[in-house]
Amino acid sequence: MSTATADGAATPGRASSAPPANGPSAKKPKSVMGTRPWLAAVFLLPALVLLGALVVYPIGYSVYRSLFDASGNGFVGLDNYQEMFSDDATKTAIKNNIIWLILAPTVSTALGLIFAVLTERIRWATAFKLVVFMPMAISMLAAGIIFRLVYEQDPDKGVANAMWVSVHDSFSESPPFPGAHPRPAAGTTESSSGAYTTNATLKAGSPTSLPLVAAKRDDISDAQDAKAAKPEAGKVTGTVWFDFTRGGLGKEGAIDKGEKAMAGLKVEAVKDGKVVGRATTAADGTYTLPAKAEGAQLRLPAWNFSEPYNGIDWLGPSLVTPAIIGSYVWIWAGFAMVLIAAGLAGVPRELMEAARMDGANEWQVFRRVTVPMLAPVLSVVVVTLMINVMKIFDLVYIIAPDPSKDDANVLALQLYQSSFGTDVNQGLGSAIAVLLLLLVMPIMIINIRRIRRESRR
Predict the structure, then answer these.
(1) Whole-angstrom Cα distance, residue 441 to residue 445?
(2) What is the DSSP letter of 23?
(3) pLDDT tens-digit series, residues 6-15
């Protein structure tokens, strides 16, 4: 480029004359809002109105309402907050929220991490991830109904107790005739433990039979007909049978035709408080005790008539909160797995191979390489679940039965009960809402700072 001198000659390398940068013809730089701030304001106005109506106003009104009594007319200041912290139900809710905050995100993230790592080594990883993630498609209401059935106390209805009872019964014998007992006129005495002992003593060569009643039909439906025991020299024999004939045609205390034997019943010979002989009734109801049982009393242990093992009271006062957390983990472990698997896909495989080349085993690679590289993703999952857990409501409301609802109480449920329950006090409910907001705020601030920190990278 060249410029002309006074004599008309061009001088190379010199820029042509231009108006100064700050001259009247210079263009002003665009502002952040652009050349028309009012246009941006027009587009932002609907969002700001919605934000104010759905977020700012409810928060402000909750703070305002928490300073008034149940009617909303009398100003009470901080009395609602004082009542909240002195109420046992609110204290239980805060304690349970802390348990939720510690257990639910930790267990869900840990399971998600395990699933994400293990599915990298199987062929049907996609199908497995689909099955684990599928509960996310189910609403909390439906999940609560499902797990209310899963945790049913009756093993015939509840899946959890059906599995638990099956395992228990595989290692221990079930009582043969729960609820049965000797006929009142059979000459027996019931002890405080539930055992039945004959008043008369046993004699060798003279059978001692015991008639029982109140057995359940299912327990004797397939039993053989009872047989009278034959006397044996030097041995004590007898029969234990179900003393009942349809139509009431049988004779009490006698083995009538068609009356059922009570097989598998344990009998003991007791002398001076010591057991000197034991036996189990055969398929026809008969038993045989050794000669040393002569002169002893016949005892039927209480185990014969005790109720069968009925599983664990999952929704009882002591286990209701962990049980509900288990249902939450079932839903959200898939969410954690998907996010962690996405983060795991971005981990350089060269680092893992280098660690293996240096002699590290799989556990060391997982602990020293995989987990540190996934730390940002793990923090996202944990913080997200912590925010979600602080406002848990529907699972607790649906799964916990009425007798255990107070023991499973959480802040969101206590807020609902205080505001819309039997004793309506929306001032107290608003105070609980403000407390819940204050508890969630630190987690939200941590999450916002993390997002800003990652955006600068």
Answers:
(1) 6
(2) S
(3) 444 444 545 4
260, 253 contact by CB (below 8 A): no
End-to-end Cα spacing for the chain: 42
pLDDT tens per residue, range 265-297 = 999 999 998 999 999 999 999 999 998 999 999
Asked if residue 323 lies in contact with residue 353, where contact means CB atoms within 8 angstroms, the answer is no
For CATH 1.10.3720.10, the residue range(s) in the chain are 87-160+314-424
Q: Which of 146, 55, 100, 107 is nearest to 391 (CA)?
A: 100
Helical (H) or strand (E) element with 269: strand 266-271
Higher-confidence position of 2 and 177: 177
Q: Are 385 and 378 in contact (CB under 8 A)?
A: no
Read off the pLDDT of residues 16-53 as tens digits, 9 standing for 90 and up.
445 555 555 555 555 555 557 888 888 889 999 999 99
- In the chain, the amino acid numbered 127 is A
Which of 31-45, 48-62, 80-94, 212-226 shows the lowest per-residue confidence on average (mean pLDDT)?
31-45
Class of domain 87-160+314-424: mainly alpha
Average pLDDT, the chain: 87
The helix/strand/coil state of 410 is: coil
Residues sharing a CB contact under 8 Å with residue 366, sequence separation 6 or more, in sequence order:
117
Q: For strand 210-213 and strand 181-182, is the pairing parallel, antiparallel, or unpaired?
A: antiparallel
